Amino acid sequence: MLAQGGCRWDENTGAINMPIYQTSTFSHPALGQSTGFDYSRSGNPTRSVLEDLVSRIEGGKRALAFSSGMAAIDCIMKLFGPGDTIVVTEDPYGGTCRLLDKVYRQVGIEVVYVDTSQLVEVEKVFERNVKAVLIESPTNPLQRIADIPAICRIAGEKGAFTIVDNTFLTPYFQRPIALGADVVVYSATKYISGHNDVLAGFLVARDQELGEKLYFYQNATGAVLGPWDSWLTLRGLKTLPLRMECQQKNAQEIAEWLVKHPRVTKVFYPGLPDHPGHNLLKSQSSGFGAIVSFEVDDPALVPKILSQVKVFLFAESLGGVESLITFPAVQTHADVNPDVREKLGINDRLLRISVGIEAVEDLVSDLASAFEK
Fold first, then answer.
1. Of 41, 61, 98, 213, which residue is the catalytic one?
2. How far apart are CA 140 and CA 28, in angstroms?
3. Hey, which of 9, 41, 184, 262 has its CA 20 to 30 A from 350?
């Protein structure tokens, strides 16, 4: 399905690839008639084909493509209002915390952070007036794993939504709707587009009614994905399985190498058998992803590694074919309170790597040289 995403759409020309409909508006056949497209904020053929493909691979009823992953989460939050409580994974992407704490708390939405890898902690917090739980699993950057089916059952019994950020694993490795989730969110900037050349996000709704409600908010606020970026994302999806398999294989080998390094004190990768979430993730997904975080024994080693790597690129983001290395405490999680960061383990010795498709021998050699220089 993915390799031929967008094929056969244009029957008039037989174009193999989905055309880019770079237009803001569409003419009407006659008064009171429409081709199904009127204005590109409300719908564009290139974006619609992409959304339909993502909906089908995810197993949802409606997918919506946004201008970024944060725009997608912002749209979800339009479902809630003053007095509502949202339970959130305690160590998510820092931008999620920034949006929730500095925007939505200000309008009266209570945000409660919980270690969603501990089911008993999730059960406790549902004693409040909880409207939704937002799970990130695996978490960024500490790779904690949530029991998604169990949390979905708890939330469902309380009449709350379950929203799962599945950015790290994509629908290729994990399908949260099949596990019980109501909405799945993606930063499609990452693995779904896969080439570090697009900003994009997705929401996928389990049922049509919820999908239509989210579409209303998207159309009202206008944070839609443009036709050119929709085409690039569609192109990226064609190779998603190949990229994910290669990146995961590389990540596993690098994680195993890091475990043995004398300067590394901790390795966070769920593909390692001794990772606390290893067996749980195996039960609800078909893969472990390609993000590896690790702690070194001395904070002074961090700037040394970042300055010495030659194959890895010192850059934020993740999920592209190029391997990246990041210092979460001052980059992706800079907006998180320093005391909270330290409590969670996002400290001055923690590095995160997004493993690409380069030869794994080159990647390991690059890290080894950076440690030694």
1. 41
2. 47
3. 184
CA distance 261 to 297: 11
Q: Which domains does the chain have, with CATH numbers?
A: 45-237 (3.40.640.10), 240-372 (3.90.1150.10)
- Using N-to-C axis directions, what is the helix angle for 208-221 and 69-77, rounded to 10°? 110
Helices (H), the chain: 45-58, 69-77, 94-99, 119-125, 148-157, 170-173, 208-221, 227-237, 240-259, 278-284, 301-308, 338-344, 360-372
Contact in structure between 136 and 113 (CB atoms under 8 Å): no
pLDDT higher at 31 or 333: 31
- Is-catalytic flag, 190? yes
Q: What are phi and psi of 198, to 5 degrees?
A: -140, 140
Does residue 41 carry a catalytic annotation? yes
Q: What is the DSSP string of 91-106?
A: S--HHHHHHIIIIIGG
Q: Please give the pLDDT value at position 346.
A: 84
User: What confidence tens digit (pLDDT) does each residue in 138-150 have?
Assistant: 999 999 999 999 9
